[in-house]
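Thread title: Can someone regenerate the structure for this chain?

I was given the following input by a collaborator and told the matching structure tokens would be attached. They weren't. Posting the sequence so someone can regenerate them.
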Amino acid sequence: MRLRHMTRMKKSLALAAVAALALSAPALAQSASPGTVAAASSALVTLNGADRAQALAAINAELNSIQRLQGRFVQTSPDGSRAAGTFYMQRPGRLRFEYDPPATMLIVADGSVVALRDTALRTTERTPLRSTPLSLILGERIDLERNARIIRVSREGPWTLVTARDRRGQADGTITLQFNNGELRSWDVVDATGARTRITLSNVTQPASLDRSLFRLPDQVSTPGRR
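Best answer:
Regenerated them for you:
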């Protein structure tokens, strides 16, 4: 029972991470480490009025300027453990979130369905894209003010932080996107219990094209020794 419980927890964290990734992936990030984030600083100033609107407009423009991305990510879980992997994104509606071994999870959005596959357990969970936050932020046009409920926009020096909730109230917790000079460096997902998961990007590029097979989940899970 404990093993199954832990597996469910890991899947929940993976889904939270991919939702965060989809929300923020269109911003081009350069190599960053978790220690570079200014989120915990007491010097952060909350933006209001015209300053808030200008900051959100600039971020929306950056998010909408990129159609395809690929790169590396590091996920730091609430217990301090880390997992790394590779992501691919193509708007509208397509995403691949691929963990390195020994992790056994793969998350793929194919434009209509989001699938989470655990190759060790040989299970696949599917959810319609339209019923997830991904449908709002992998679309043709991204508008954070419209697509999410913005809790706070703050700034310290070159850092701008945007904290948001699911506007429809179907997902608990918050996401804080952390930008440095307009480029996304990392983000935190805080769930309803207060547990924090951090995603940090590196080696991000903007390919001219991506193989469409990246966004299709094979019907059969390969096993060691078989092709």
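The longest helix spans residues 2-24.
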